[in-house]
Amino acid sequence: LKFIAIFGDPAMAKLRMLVLQCFAGFFMLVPVRSIVLVTGATGRTGSILYKLLQQHGQLGATRALVRNATAAREKLGCKACNASDGVFVGDVTDPSTLASAFDGVSTLAIAVGVHGSEPKSIVEKVEWLGVKNQLQALVKDGAAGKRVLLISTMGTTEPPSKTDTNFVMFYKLNAEAFIESTGLPYAIIKPCGLSNDSGNQRELMAGHDDDLFETGFYMIPRQDVAAVAVAALTAPPVNELRFDLCAKQPGTGPGNMQKVLQDALWPWQKSQIEPLMI
């Protein structure tokens, strides 16, 4: 009754309450400025993502988790390449090495990955158990305000055959499922084949369930993947994103990051955000 007295008749009160709820939902999607940690930051995609997040600055200070300082100096351009630079040496397969890097972190961007030729035990430790270790380190002091992004891969819809020796996709899928089970806001980007070509020159395509393979395009520049990842962290349309990502031929771009994120939504997700777009 007090609310109605302030805002008028019941119908108007209901309308204004809906507006307030919409704005509340919007602000839940906007990441709080604090600390973002990129793991696998010296990798070919991770190093690009780290530098883009540093340049963007919206998420606050950008940290890097690396395997060794020498690689960090070469790939990231750091000077001291230690905590004073926001660079931490650690191993995602060893939880005891993660505490310092994760202290105070609210946004985790996982770009860790194996090459694919490693033994199954190593693939499992990095692609699956390593992701689990990172999530546990992220929420050690509570899950409120935390967000995670994973750069995974397309090709996870088919289980490995009895003769398959590549278990990367299987363990990446395990990692995806674990992230989805945490209740944290997340973005899982599943790119097609990765290239080192220049970015921002191609039309980007979002899809699901490996349907993009049917388009006849199989590669995307790492630069474009990193740019979409930044958009998914800084301007997510919803709190639960999981989608395939690929690109057309050069000259069809530049890529529209927000369009990609909208195309990545399932129909029921689009209907949920329509009130915010009125």
Describe the fold and architecture.
The structure is a single chain. With about 280 residues, this protein is α/β, with parallel strands linked by helices. It is built from 10 helices and 10 strands. Strands 3-2-1-4-5-6-10-8 form an 8-stranded mixed sheet, with helices on both faces. Strands 7-9 form a two-stranded parallel ribbon. α3 (about 45-55) crosses α8 (about 220-235) and α8 (about 220-235) packs across α9. The longest helix is centred in the first third of the chain and has 20 residues, at about 10-30. The chain starts with a helix and ends in a 5-residue tail after the last helix.
Could you list the spans in which at least 5 consecutive residues all have pLDDT below 50?
1-8, 13-28
Q: Biggest sheet, open or closed, and with what strands and sense?
A: 8 strands, mixed
Distance between the termini: 28 Å
The helix/strand order is: HHEHEHEHEHEHEEEEHEHH
Outline the fold blueprint.
Blueprint (H helix, E strand, L loop, with lengths): L1 H6 L2 H20 L4 E6 L6 H11 L3 E7 L2 H8 L10 E3 L9 H4 L4 E4 L9 H19 L8 E5 L16 H14 L4 E6 L1 E3 L8 E4 L11 E3 H13 L5 E8 L9 H7 L3 H7 L5
Parallel strand pairs: 1-2, 1-4, 2-3, 4-5, 5-6, 6-10, 7-9
Antiparallel strand pairs: 8-10
Helix pairs in contact: 3-8, 6-7, 8-9
